Amino acid sequence: MNEREKLLKRLQVCDFVLNETALFLNTHPDDKAALEYYKKYMEMERESRAEYVKKYGPVSRNEYDGGPRWNWIDNPWPWEEV
Amino acid sequence: MWTYEKKLQYPVKIKRPDVAAAKVVITQLGGPDGELGAAMRYLNQRYVSPYKEVTGTLTDIGSEVSEMFRFSPPPFFEAFATA
Question: Which of B:8-67 have CB within 8 Å of A?
Answer without folding.
Answer: 47, 52-53, 55-56, 59-60
